[in-house]
Design a protein that fits this description.
This protein is of the alpha/beta class and about 550 residues long. Helix content is about 40%, strand content about 20%. It has 2 domains: about 10-160 and about 395-549, Alpha-Beta Barrel (nicotinate phosphoribosyltransferase); about 215-380, TIM Barrel (Alpha-Beta Barrel), CATH 3.20.20. It contains 18 helices and 23 strands. The strands form 6 sheets. It has a 7-stranded antiparallel β-sheet. A 6-stranded parallel β-sheet has the order 7-6-13-12-11-10. The chain has a 4-stranded mixed β-sheet with strand order 20-16-17-23. Pfam families: NAPRTase (PF04095), NAPRTase_C (PF17956), NAPRTase_N (PF17767).
Length: about 550
């Protein structure tokens, strides 16, 4: 690698995002690396945990995302010559040339990555990643790894909350590209919203890069660009399955007259510009006609124009998709539209018309969907942008990366805020399930602890509150932490995005409903073994006594 052109290898056939590189870091990581080097700590073996302290959005679960990019980052970790040249310009002139040579030669062959599988529902204090290796090397990884995990997990969790609100039968489409925080933020949003349970995106590049289904129709500008039927130069539509060309405009006029008494609209109230736009779009996409009907007036012109063109398409052998509402009272309008669809279905013996798609957009957030559910609505697809990709309810996850061991000796960070006290040493987490298949508790153990066994009682202790403890007799046990990188090799497969989406939805189902609910969810229990509890508190007391002397 040389110059400014960074060539990345692939990891298990998957390319790395070129922005993700060792120099994508905070300066203090470089200065700490220099201080470690100058102190002769280059070969100290350190263990860091990456975890978060609180679930986002006042909820009680988080969807872990970003692991694949973490794996690729660690595998391809390498400072380039241009990186070194730049670092020389920002570090003090007193920094020895040998340090920059040291940075240039760094690699991750001796780094081990333990991680929970991506797409798993996770909880506070449980390490998502545990990174073991030379102290300066694994210290340098802190900022990039946090950057890769924090937003990915936040927006995936946000997506999953929208999925819970909308229900499993609704189609959820991510429309956030234009409102996202820059191009890379938009791509990450599309990718991880899909992992979090969305069905598609409007982002074409995300579709190309990640294989996400892309969806979209037209904007209000398309409607307002037409002034009348005289602008339609293409009047012809081939009848499906034949070579017969149909003059589509007279056919639409015929259906407008037939529909007027059924839907109760007046012929002269229908906007000719809107009807022209719908005809133009339908002839361009006869198999995918889904129209935005609120440009002027939904009831007086948008809905009649759609039904007119939809029935004309049906006569030519095509089946329209539905409509989109982007303003107004979404509950009321969606119900009115559905009732109109049902009238058309009955009047013309076209049963499928009653189940046409109704898409709602218009700055929708999670609370909007819950409100619509309470009101009663007929929407079966939501297009969601700003509130989804920007995570307006909570802009950051708050993940942290803490040192827990050096040269096999535990390290603990103390604080007057108990939430910020770290759990020392490397740990292995298990998820214990009840006989109903629901997850009961996550249990952290020391690596030398006896792992829990099915149908055998195990004591689960709160990490910090002595009186909180319970015996659990699990019907099923899942080891959460697996070795993903060891001796320079990736040890686990990296699933496709579609597989990760399925895993996330399945993992969520293992939680009780009261853990998932939006309002006042029940906290999920995270515990430690009796041995780890004693180990941690003995170290805590020892450090407290040392400080007080």
């Amino acid at each position: 690698m040389s110059g400014d052109h960074r060539q990345f290898s692939t990891v298990l056939g998957k390319e790395q995002n070129g922005v993700i590189q060792p120099i994508l870091t905070d300066l203090y990581q470089i200065t700490m690396a220099y201080a470690y080097w100058k102190s002769g700590k280059m070969n100290d073996v350190a263990v860091f945990d990456l975890y978060f302290r609180r679930n986002p959005f006042k909820g009680e679960f988080t969807v872990f995302a970003g692991l694949e990019e973490c794996v690729k980052f660690i595998q391809n970790f390498k400072f380039t010559e241009s990186d070194i040249k730049y670092l020389k310009s920002v570090m003090p002139t007193s920094v020895e040339e040998e340090f920059f040579e040291y940075l240039k030669e760094l690699n991750t062959k001796t780094v081990t990555l333990f991680a929970i599988e991506e797409g798993t529902v996770v909880f506070p204090k449980i390490p998502l990643l545990t990174v073991k290796g030379p102290l300066p090397v694994v210290q340098l990884m802190e900022t990039p790894l946090l950057n890769l995990v924090n937003y990915a997990s936040l927006v995936a969790t946000n997506g999953m909350r929208f999925r819970i609100a909308a229900g499993s039968d609704s189609i959820l489409l991510e429309f956030g590209l234009r409102r996202a925080q820059g191009p890379d933020g938009a791509l990450s949003a599309s990718r991880y919203c899909y992992l979090g349970g969305f069905d598609g995106t409007s982002n074409v590049l995300a579709g190309k890069l990640y294989g996400i289904p892309v969806r979209g129709t037209h904007a209000h500008a398309f409607i307002t660009s037409f002034s009348g039927l005289s602008e339609l130069h293409n009047r012809q539509l081939v009848r499906k399955g034949t070579d017969e060309m149909v003059d589509f405009i007279p056919l639409c006029k015929k259906w407008k007259k037939q529909l007027a008494p059924v839907l109760g609209f007046l012929d002269d109230q229908v906007s000719q510009s809107e009807l022209a736009a719908f005809i133009a779009y339908a002839t361009a996409f006869p198999d995918g006609f889904l129209a935005l009907i609120d440009t002027y007036d939904v009831v007086r012109t948008g809905l009649p124009s759609f039904c007119t063109v939809a029935m004309a398409l049906h006569e030519c052998g095509y089946q329209p998709r539905g409509i989109r509402l982007d303003s107004g009272d979404l509950a009321y309008l969606s119900n009115l539209v559905r009732q109109s669809f049902e009238k058309v279905a009955r009047s013309f013996n076209v049963p499928w018309f009653s189940s046409l798609t109704i898409v709602a957009s218009n700055d929708i957030n999670e609370d909007t969907i819950h409100s619509l559910n309470q009101q009663g609505h007929s929407i079966n697809s939501f297009g969601i942008g700003t509130h989804l990709v920007t995570c307006q309810k909570q802009p950051a996850l708050g993940g942290v990366y803490k040192l827990v061991e050096v040269n096999s000796k535990p390290r603990i960070k103390l604080s007057e805020d108990v939430e910020k006290v770290t759990i020392p040493g490397r740990k292995i987490a298990y998820r214990l399930f009840g006989h109903d298949g629901n997850a009961l508790v996550d249990l952290m153990l020391k690596p030398d602890d006896e792992p829990p066994a099915i149908n055998e009682r195990v004591l689960c202790r709160h990490p910090f509150i002595e009186s909180k403890r319970a015996y659990v007799c699990p019907a099923k046990i899942e080891r959460l932490h697996k070795v993903f990188i060891e001796n320079g090799e990736v040890k686990q497969p990296l699933p496709t995005l579609t597989e990760l989406r399925s895993k996330a939805l399945c993992s969520l189902k293992s939680l009780r409903i009261d853990h998932r609910r939006a309002l006042n969810p029940t906290p999920y229990k995270v515990s430690v073994s009796s041995n780890l509890y004693s180990f941690m508190h003995d170290l805590w007391n020892c450090r407290t006594k040392t400080v007080s002397r």
